[in-house]
Structure formats: structure tokens, C-alpha cells
Amino acid sequence: MDSDNCHSSVVNVIYNLREKIEPDSKNHTYIKTVLGVGYKFNG
After folding, report:
1. Max Cα–Cα distance, the chain, nearest Å
2. pLDDT tens digit string along 3-43?
3. Domain boundaries, given as residue ranges, for the chain
4. Residue partners of 36: CB distance under 8 A and separation at least 6
5. Rounded-to-10 torsion of CA 21, 25, 18, 14
6. Confidence band (pLDDT; 50, 70, 90) for 1?
7. Which residue, 11, 20, 19, is CA-closest to 39?
8. Residue 43 near residue 37 (C-beta atoms within 8 A)
9. Is the pTM value of this prediction over 0.70?
């Protein structure tokens, strides 16, 4: 699997998780994006 496909898969998984657990889809409170690193869960 090349890097672009892997990145797209991760982005899709994070998007779906946010749709399921975030109370407000515009304001992310649980899953934060950390630029240059990835994602962070604030639980």
C-alpha cells in the first residue's frame, strides 16, 4: 500500500469516528488534529 492510500484510509477512519462520537461535528472535542504529527484523543 502506498503512502497516499494509507493516508486516505486513516483520514476516512478518523472522519467516521468523529461522526459517531463527537457531540458537534463542527467543533471537535474528543479527536484533535495535531499538525505534523497526527491525531490525539482527548477523553
Report:
1. 33
2. 778 889 999 999 999 999 999 978 999 999 999 999 999 98
3. 3-41
4. none
5. -170
6. low
7. 11
8. no
9. yes
